[in-house]
Design a protein that fits this description.
Dimethylsulfoxide Reductase, domain 2, N-terminal domain of TfIIb, 734 residues, alpha/beta, 6-stranded mixed sheet
Length: 734
Amino acid sequence: MNKEKKIPSECDQRNIPGITRRGFLKVGAAVAGGVAVTPALQHRSAIGAMTTDVSGKSDYEVDSCCQFCQARCTTKVQVRDGRVVNVYGNPGNEWTMGTMCPKGQSLVELTYSPHRIIYPLKREGNSWKRISYGAALDMVADRILTIKRDFPKDYAHRVVHFAPLWDSHESEIACKAALHLAGFPDTCSPGDTCIGSSSTALSLCLGSGVSSTTLDELKNAQMLLLWGANLSVIYPTYVRWIDEARNNGVEVVYFDPRRTPTSKYCNEQVMPRPGTDGALAMGLVRILIRENLCDREFIASHVNGFEELVSSVEQYTPEKVSEITWVPKDVIVNLARRIGRSKRTILWMGGSLSRYTNSLQTIRALIALQAITGNILGKGRGIMNVRGGKPGGEEIFDEMYSAPKLASKLNFRKVIYNMERERVNLLLLNSSYRRYPDTNKIKEAISKVDFVVYRGFFMDEEAEISHLIIPPVMIFESDGSQYGAQRQVVWRTRAIEPLGEAVPDWQFYTDLGKKICGGTFPDVNSAEDIFELFRKNAPTWAGLTLERLKNSPSGISWPCPSEDHPGTRGDMYTDGRFFTEDGKVDLITKGLGPITWSEPKGSPKEEKKNTAEFPLIFTQGKVVQHWQHTFTNWSGYMAQFSKGNYAQVHPKTALNLNLKNGDWVWVETTLGKLKMRLRISESIMEGVVWMPSHLSPSVPFKGNTGQIVNSIIPYYWDKVSAQFNGFGCRLTKA
């Protein structure tokens, strides 16, 4: 299919002020090193750290927030002559202290990119025809109604939605209401490829999948376990909290098979072999139990399944765990004893823990580690999850706005199965299919869908396989709420009118819902209407009025049950009870069996065949200037600081393969191979290969252009999440 990069546009990138590489380097390097943009540089311009200061030269300024990670950095947006000319961190935000990272700063460039799509486009053969938003909306609604008419007893799974919705929480609500009221249950969550397993395990064990505590409790802890949480990359504006905690005497231990910028903020780094975190956690639990370093009183009153846990961990001796994880025995024993002595420990779990086929069990083992030491309830204790604080009470809203006898939702793998058998007639594509393992398999399945509607910004890989593009707005062009990792809810005010005929997701799905659901769709006409509708039906958000949010640069953390409630910071379980049926930590889960550990699927250690053919361990991940497989690749400015496809290995790994730094190499898995540069570094474990995951072949900027890493990642899944790391690969000279 024809990829057209030039679309009729009202944008002109030349009008972006002050783009200088030197200015960005001063801050870009600092951010990559783990320090977010400093308050002194807040007023510099839009992309990275610009040298043009536009403060005092704007017509007006509005409060906004970044749409990318769950740090939800609130910002100030400056507008002159109807255009955004600057964005900087809101200095009143207690979580970020007015800092923000390059991803959020790239949004000005992206908003006015000459490559951006700002009008609906209909595919006609190998070309595109511009049509009106109204015509595009009618086309989608008519197709959905035709599907219901043609398959009166078999339509529920024929319309599918790929989330997330970048725009706002109101967009999620409008989309879900429209599809559920029309009788279509299948929305594929981004958690499938992100933090689905950790959220699921936390929900099963504690009754909620969000963080049980907040950042400000770090100062009250004695010990902080950063388990796979590379904050310098995923939440760079939060790194200062780690730095302050350590300066206040908190012992910070970081678990990661690579030394990253986060490492320098920690007292100690433990480097387990990728995919063995669960075995390490079980080994620590065993030592705590055998050396009587548990909180027996807390266990008796607050934990179910302790005896089963004792039995499960018995085989995980220090010797065995050391053999599995490659962590020295004395390090394991010493760490367990320090954890046992700490009376206030916070565990911060990274998203990487969910990206293995053993991830559900790993998260359960980590929850058990916190539970048996009594470190879940109270000040300086708890579990933090790299996930936005999605509100409790959504099930009440879902029940109100769903069709009678709505079919059960299918998981992603069953949706793909249906696509492959041509049982899906329409796909609402709001996100990148490239985020899934075996990308080519997913692309082929989507190609069998009759009609694909893409809510995309650029002519990327998703546009290639779509039939209709209805462009969404950039963050400055719409208002709405978003929820963050501190369970905080923030409000964003629209700064400018949408360019062209781009429309917010909440508007598109509201307009669609009214057409396909008739009078059953709620009477809402704005993001504020949708917010109020949800708030009045979600007990945990009852006190979050729009007025309060608009005057809260830090946001307000839920539960917030009434308008005079300040919001809940710190421990979410304020009455000493968890949100499980009996109020206790539940380490017994039907269907999952006892807590245990197994090798990741395809691991070189899983069987001898894997070791011989693919002896190295494959890993991949994020970089600070890009947000996964998204439109940040279309930032030409950020491309200056990207390095394309490369594979990082330890010097001894390279020596054993007779490879040198800078060599072109093939990284090969059971699915295929990709060509990339070799980068040798002592920061990574021997026998492990790491590469960045964000690259795309369709973008016009060299630094961001590259082959899709997920195209060679095998299609392995946990019960909930996809696997991206821990399987075998090999390196050969290209």
